[in-house]
């Protein structure tokens, strides 16, 4: 890495994760520059979701470090040892890294506006009025401002996921993580969510997407990483990797995806 | 602490013998009460699901009435009040009657819940295949419903077992009365009541545990049926 | 009718017993609710096997041993150790301990019925565990626990009658004394049943209305 190149915003260094005897991540390292959109693709069980969830420490890595700028995420130096931070200590760090989940996980007892504003009010200590204004601005971004008073159960899957995206945006994060954001949606609802994500990418947001939508990844992501069996097999500019993969495994995976999504 | 437990060996054989005697009566009380409750409860459930409105309503009133009443009040009424109406029950008899009457309301709810939980389609498909309503009930509905009803029925028995301790207050010679007698004779209430608590625990806990194991197994079975 | 006169003559005394019963029930309810909630949250969030085993043992002991035994242990047993609690206090302590165990199970079931994803979403948004508990988990789980909680409350009012065994002057105790002094057994027990019904039915209806109100407020 030459010093003339822009420093990376997010760095994942040598990430390992095991569940008992099962090793899911076997030494993952990646970098993300500010404004970049990175897409993680790969077969089920390749570890891509686990990798994502390690970045905001919803899963605790067995080994490895996550750096946001020059801040170490989830761990602290205690003399010569590294110790795991508690959830309370990690809360301010998690504000910088937003996550959009496959199953949205909106809070059913709160209306849409409260869902989006809760984080600002409680985690940032924002006054309610200001938090609501921010929430409505974010809802406007995802084209759902008119639904601010509705409850999640009254919305379609696509609308709920867009609210979840608004909630992530309201955190004013440095990085947004998307964990298979459209996998749980009916096909006709997928488009509206992808459209919002595309807009965010064009705005220059820093994002990592785990997704099965390979064509979308090719169009919207700057770079693509193909993972298999807990390793990074291939990475590079999205058009290059997807159109002209250099590894056999990448080729066969993309081939299968093309057939399924044809 | 050790001196506390050192008191036990001296009284152990005498106490356990008397407690076991009381325990036998408790067993009879609780099993008898449960049997009566199951019988009456089944009748109540049948009445609850009958097409006759007056029958349904009577059953509902009976259940509401039983549930608004403390068991102790019922037991005292049966033991002290009935003689003036010509019927004198022993403590044991009043106990079984009281436990059975209250228990029947509880069990009726369990049975109704278990039967309602079954999809109506089960009965319809049985009838469609040509079974009579009675055959449909015995061959299709009941076997499936029982699996779900077993855990709460076990819980109901444990409940009746614990409630049988109240019969000590109407002079029934069961476990708790034996414990109280020993307590007043020996002036070691802590020791004896801990011991009697242990007696109840040893019977009730395995049943509660079994109920929970069955409940887990039952819900797991249902999930795997759906694939 | 002299029966009716006697009935109304007995009422004041029995009603004072009812008041005592309600006082005991209220104190117990507060203590048991706090205890049950603390235990439920601790149990759900603790990763220590010791804590989980300890709480489980407490709950099992409380729930598999009759309440009468607990009351005797606290009233008679503790006096052996030199701690002489007045009967009404022993009743409250005993019923609260049992109640904490029962409510812990109820609140825990409510908490665990929520999808863990809501907790994770709370973490992702930067909330601390306490904030997630207070703003997301408890509002929903308490609402779900309401029917079981209502059952507990009605059962509690009935269970205050057990305190008569340690001479607490609530309805049952007073009723028994009246019986031995006046021999009007049927009338007295009829009055007792009316009083319990009068306490329990409105509370049951109150909870039903609360459930309906909360259900529609979403």
TrEMBL record, chain B:
Localization per record: Cell inner membrane; Cell membrane
MF-aspect GO terms: transmembrane transporter activity
Pfam families, sorted: BPD_transp_1 (PF00528)
Transmembrane segments: 29-48, 60-82, 192-214
Residues covered by the ABC transmembrane type-1 domain: 23-211
GO cellular component, one term: ATP-binding cassette (ABC) transporter complex
Role noted for this protein: Part of the binding-protein-dependent transport system for glutamine; probably responsible for the translocation of the substrate across the membrane.
Protein name: Amino acid ABC transporter permease
Source taxonomy: Bacteria, Pseudomonadati, Pseudomonadota, Gammaproteobacteria, Pseudomonadales
Automatic annotation (TrEMBL), chain C:
PROSITE patterns membership: ABC_TM1
GO CC term (a single one): ATP-binding cassette (ABC) transporter complex
Keyword Plastid: no
Keyword field: Amino-acid transport, Cell membrane, Membrane, Transmembrane, Transmembrane helix, Transport
Domain of life: Bacteria
Domain (ABC transmembrane type-1) ranges: 18-211
Claim: Membrane is one of the keywords in the record: yes
Gene Ontology BP annotations: amino acid transport
Membrane topology recorded in Swiss-Prot or TrEMBL: Multi-pass membrane protein
GO MF entries: transmembrane transporter activity
Subcellular location(s) per record: Cell inner membrane; Cell membrane
Regions crossing the membrane: 30-45, 65-83, 187-208
Major location (coarse): membrane
Coiled coil start-end: none
Protein family according to the UniProt entry: Belongs to the binding-protein-dependent transport system permease family. HisMQ subfamily.
Protein name as catalogued: Amino acid ABC transporter permease
Organism annotation: Pseudomonas gingeri
């Amino acid at each position: 890495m030459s010093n003339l190149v822009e420093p990376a915003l997010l760095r994942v260094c040598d990430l390992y994760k095991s569940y008992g005897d099962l090793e899911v991540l076997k030494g993952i390292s990646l970098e993300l520059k500010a404004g970049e959109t990175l897409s993680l693709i790969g077969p089920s069980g390749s570890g891509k979701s686990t990798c994502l969830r390690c970045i905001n420490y919803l899963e605790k890595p067995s080994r490895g470090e996550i750096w946001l700028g020059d801040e170490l995420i989830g761990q602290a130096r205690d003399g010569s040892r590294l110790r795991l931070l508690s959830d309370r200590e990690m809360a301010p760090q998690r504000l910088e890294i937003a996550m959009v989940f496959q199953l949205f996980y909106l809070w059913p007892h709160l209306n849409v506006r409260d869902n989006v504003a809760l984080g600002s009010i409680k985690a940032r200590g924002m006054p309610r009025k200001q938090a609501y204004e921010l929430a409505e601005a974010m809802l406007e971004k995802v084209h759902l401002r008119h639904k601010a008073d509705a409850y999640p159960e009254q919305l379609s899957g696509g609308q709920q996921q867009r609210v979840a995206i608004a909630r992530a945006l309201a955190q004013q994060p440095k990085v947004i993580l998307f964990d298979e954001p459209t996998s749980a949606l009916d096909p006709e609802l997928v488009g509206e969510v992808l459209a919002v994500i595309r807009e965010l990418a064009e705005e220059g947001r820093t994002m990592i997407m785990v997704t099965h939508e390979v064509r979308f990844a090719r169009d919207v992501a700057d770079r693509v990483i193909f993972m298999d069996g807990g390793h990074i097999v291939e990475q590079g500019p999205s058009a290059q990797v997807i159109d002209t993969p250099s590894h056999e495994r990448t080729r066969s995976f993309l081939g299968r995806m093309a057939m399924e999504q044809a | 602490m050790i001196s506390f437990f050192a008191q036990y060996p001296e009284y152990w054989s005498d106490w356990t013998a008397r407690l076991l005697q009381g325990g036998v009566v408790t067993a009879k009380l609780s099993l008898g009460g449960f049997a009566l409750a199951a019988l009456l409860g089944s009748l109540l459930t049948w009445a609850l699901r009958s097409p006759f409105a007056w029958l349904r309503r009577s059953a509902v009133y009976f259940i509401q009435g039983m549930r608004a009443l403390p068991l102790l009040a019922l037991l005292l009424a049966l033991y002290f009040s009935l003689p003036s109406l010509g019927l004198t029950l022993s403590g044991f008899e009043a106990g079984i009657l009281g436990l059975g009457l209250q228990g029947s309301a509880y069990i009726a709810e369990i049975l109704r819940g278990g039967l309602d939980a079954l999809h109506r389609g089960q009965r319809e498909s049985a009838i469609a295949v040509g079974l009579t309503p009675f055959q449909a009930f015995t061959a299709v509905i009941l076997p499936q419903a029982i699996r779900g009803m077993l855990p709460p029925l076990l819980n109901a028995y444990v409940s009746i077992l614990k409630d049988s301790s109240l019969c000590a207050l109407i002079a029934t010679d069961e476990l708790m009365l034996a414990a109280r007698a020993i307590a007043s004779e020996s002036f070691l209430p802590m020791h004896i009541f801990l011991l009697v608590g242990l007696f109840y625990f040893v019977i009730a806990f395995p049943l509660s545990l079994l109920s929970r194991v069955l409940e887990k197994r039952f819900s797991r079975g249902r999930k795997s049926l759906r694939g | 009718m002299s029966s009716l006169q006697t009935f109304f003559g007995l009422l004041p005394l029995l009603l004072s017993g009812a008041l005592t019963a309600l006082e005991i029930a209220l104190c117990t309810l507060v203590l048991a609710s706090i205890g049950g909630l603390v235990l439920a949250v601790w149990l759900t969030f603790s990763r220590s096997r010791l804590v989980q085993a300890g709480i489980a043992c407490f709950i099992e002991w409380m729930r598999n041993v009759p309440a009468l035994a607990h009351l005797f242990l606290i009233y008679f047993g503790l006096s052996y150790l030199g701690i002489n609690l007045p009967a009404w206090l022993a009743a409250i302590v005993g019923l609260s301990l049992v109640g904490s165990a029962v409510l812990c199970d109820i609140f825990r079931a409510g908490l665990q019925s929520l999808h863990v994803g809501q907790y994770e979403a709370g973490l992702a948004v930067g909330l601390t565990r306490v904030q997630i508990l207070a703003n997301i988990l408890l509002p929903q789980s308490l609402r779900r626990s309401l029917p079981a909680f209502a059952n507990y409350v009605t059962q509690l009012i009935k269970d205050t009658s057990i305190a008569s065994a340690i001479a607490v002057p609530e309805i049952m105790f007073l009723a028994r004394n009246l019986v031995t002094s006046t021999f009007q057994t049927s009338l007295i027990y009829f009055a007792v049943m009316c009083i319990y019904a009068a306490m329990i039915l409105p509370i049951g209806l109150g909870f039903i209305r609360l459930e309906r109100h909360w259900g529609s407020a979403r």
